[in-house]
Amino acid sequence: MQKITDLIKILDLEQLSDNVFKGQNYNAPWGRVFGGQVLAQSLLAAYNTVPKDRFAHSLHGYFILVGDLDIPVTYEVDTLRDGGSFSTRRVVAKQNGKAIFNMAASFQIEQKGIEHQITMPNLIAPENLITTEEQVEKVKDSHPKFYQRLKNVIPKVFEFRPVENIISKLTKNSLPHNHLWIRTSESVVVDKRIQQALLAYVSDYNILTTATLPHREELNKVNAFYASIDHAIWFHRDFDINEWLLYTIDSPSASNSRGFSRGSIFNKTGELIASVTQEGLIRQQFK
Question: Which has the closest alpha carbon to 28: 10, 48, 51, 49?
């Protein structure tokens, strides 16, 4: 995908019946359906069954099977509850009649209440940083294979500006912390539902990688396999996906071939707009 409008087209689901929808796939370079795509499409499938005055405040998903890029994904939505303030939905994503992902999502009408949040870390502003692509270009001649592998997986529809040196982080062991600014690569006017779906999509980038940072020297010597197991998002406040957002990620633990990471997403003025957690499989396959 070259443009954010290409991604929005992929997220535009075809309605097959009242509660069943079909989505097309992003041709991910790693050869299987991208987890962020399924998260975003599942959220929008649920949104298609929810009253218009309710917006997602949380979603919790489990990746069950690897998705086939050549087969569209069908989303079946169960209407579990519509209460006075909240609506709850369950979504099962299927290919060939088998579940590849399931998700529970909760929606709420907008209500005023108490407020507090953690403080955004004081980090270098995005205007003073270079993009992931610009960092990767620096190893084009010295490490051509490494360069090509990274180049292939950098998404075009979002701009990433890492606070740290990503080449160092991917080659040398470091603390399990990651900080990067993100925004759409071009401005787009979309409603709150699409904004949340786009954030769900991009939240799947870099989060599992953070759990590998203390082990890069060991993992780079083997054919390591990575896959998301589950993913959760809490939407706290409104945001603009076109503006810079700071994604701060840390990984408190890795064990039993699983890495656990958590992220906080702030807007540029310091408001905490979302929280993310993910556990993923990190399996060493020795050569």
Answer: 10
The DSSP annotation for 48-110 comes to TTS-TTEEEEEEEEEE-SPPPTTSPEEEEEEEEEE-SSEEEEEEEEEETTEEEEEEEEEEEE-
Separate counts of helices (H) and strands (E) for the chain: 8, 12
Instruction: Name the catalytic one among 135, 196, 251, 278.
Output: 278
Question: What is the pLDDT at residue 286?
Answer: 56
The single residue of 228, 261, 264, 275 carrying the catalytic annotation is 228
Pseudo-torsion of CA 53, 20, 92, 211, nearest 10°? -60
- Single-letter amino acid code for the residue at 144: P
What pTM did the predictor assign? 0.95
Residue 287 has pLDDT above 60, yes or no: no
Give catalytic status of residue 204 as yes or no: yes
| Among the listed residues 79, 75, 90, the one whose alpha carbon sits nearest the alpha carbon of residue 21 | 75
**Residues comprising the chain, all counted:** 287
Whether the CB-CB separation of 56 and 200 falls below 8 Å is answered with no
Residues contacting residue 170 through CB under 8 Å, at least 6 positions apart: 150, 209, 216, 220
Q: Which amino acid is at 108?
A: Q
> Tens digits of per-residue pLDDT, 134-193?
999 888 888 788 788 888 888 899 999 999 999 999 999 999 999 999 999 999 999 999
Separation CA 223–CA 135 (nearest Å)? 24
The 98-109 sheet, strands edge to edge: 14-17, 20-23, 73-82, 86-95, 98-109, 54-63, 223-235, 272-285, 258-267, 245-255, 177-184, 158-162
Query: Quick check: is 278 catalytic?
Result: yes
Q: Hey, CA dihedral for 48, 53, 56, 62, is it positive or negative?
A: negative
Annotated catalytic residue, options 204, 261, 264, 275: 204
- The answer to whether the CB of 133 falls within 8 A of the CB of 163 is no
